[in-house]
Amino acid sequence: MKRISPRVLLALxxxxxxxxxxxxxxxxxxxxxxxxxxxAGSAIAFKILVDAANLGTEEARIAELTFPAGYAGPSHTxxxxxxxxxxxxxxxxxxxxxxxxxxxxxxxxxxxGDSIIHTVEGDAPAVVLTIWLPGGAKAPFHNPQ
Length: 145
Hints:
CATH class: Mainly Beta
CATH architecture: Sandwich
């Protein structure tokens, strides 16, 4: 798996985003509607950091997802590009039946229609910054197959 620095990831997002925003995006500072968290007891804890509530468009969504130790999710798809940046833990990244493990500093990418299974390897949770382009993924984020 390829390691990438947070600065490179931010530069990539800035490179991809301008074409998505059109002429005059309306940017709002962080709002309660955008910065929201999962309900207590959710299988995947999440914090929505960026979405239409503060970005002004539906073109991107960014969330911090925390997958508990031992997590084994269902096979699912998305209608958006999904980019993972692992902050901590060991994140199982099985895409189209090709298994892999992402560790802190690793990036994983899934294209629309790809079949993906998330798991957590080891005894610690995995914390993953996740970016969807366009921002079509809605909590709980999965379209089970």
